[in-house]
Amino acid sequence: RLVDYRARRPLLTFRRDRWTSFEAPTLEVRVVQDATGAPFLLLSGPEPDVEWERFAAAVEQIVERLGVRLAVNFHGIPMGVPHTRPVGI
């Protein structure tokens, strides 16, 4: 419900004479570790196209249930910068 399939087509595999697989975009919460071995939660996947309020409420429930105290956002945006040049963060 969060994805507008008219704007963002799912990955489909066509073999010979038929579609053999469909991969819907997913959002995942995983426990991973940083370079020092400290665990943290990683929410990854495409941002929603619609129903932002519902998505935000679901993330808030996860944050509260798991006792998250710090949230860090990292987001990439398209820029007119050649890949050969350094990009400041």
From TrEMBL:
Gene3D superfamilies: PAC-like subunit (3.40.50.10900). It holds the Pfam family PAC2. It comes from the Bacteria. InterPro entries: Proteasome_assmbl_chaperone_2 (IPR019151), PSMG2_sf (IPR038389). Signal peptide: none annotated. This is PAC2 family protein.
